[in-house]
Amino acid sequence: MSYDITITGATCPTCGAVGASGSWDPTYNFRQMFDAAFGDGYWADHLNGKRCGDVIPLLERVVTDMRSRPDYYRQFDASNGWGRYDGDGNGSIVDVVLQPMLDVCRQSPEGRIKIT
After folding, report:
1. Strand boundaries in the chain, DSSP class E
2. How many Å separate Cα 31 from the centre of its chain?
3. Residue among 92, 74, 93 at smallest CA distance from 28
4. Are strands 112-115 and 22-24 parallel, antiparallel or unpaired?
């Protein structure tokens, strides 16, 4: 099972252009790691339904912290191998989910985040 994270870009009311969007599906096994990174409760509550521009500072803090303390976050690696900080050879969870989310939010600050 995995989370479905979607950022839907807002449509410009003047020209009709749609902002950047993206989707990711990290395994539920990342919950402990994400909860530790986002702090103060369930991680998804900090993002779900929020406007991208409002969560950029939070995502910047999380990305910076996770990059600077990988050993801390590795303690939350799932024992079954699904949900490891270092990923599966395609880059860390920061590289494949969190940094791309931050990048899309920067490109589309009026976009919305949905997590199911």
Report:
1. 5-8, 22-24, 112-115
2. 12
3. 93
4. unpaired
Distance in angstroms (rounded) separating the CA atoms of residues 42 and 63: 17
Q: How many whole angstroms separate alpha carbon 100 and alpha carbon 93?
A: 10
List pLDDT tens digits, range 70-115.
999 999 999 998 899 998 777 899 999 999 999 999 999 999 999 9
Residue 12 DSSP symbol: P
Q: Which residues, at least 6 apart from 58, have a Cβ–Cβ distance to it below 8 Å? A: 38, 46, 47
The verdict on residue 16 lying in a domain is: no
Total of domains in the chain? 1
pLDDT tens for 25-61 read: 999 999 999 999 999 999 999 999 999 999 999 999 9
Domain extent for 27 = 5-11+22-115
Collapsed DSSP state (helix, strand, coil) of residue 2? strand
22/89 Cα distance (integer angstroms): 21
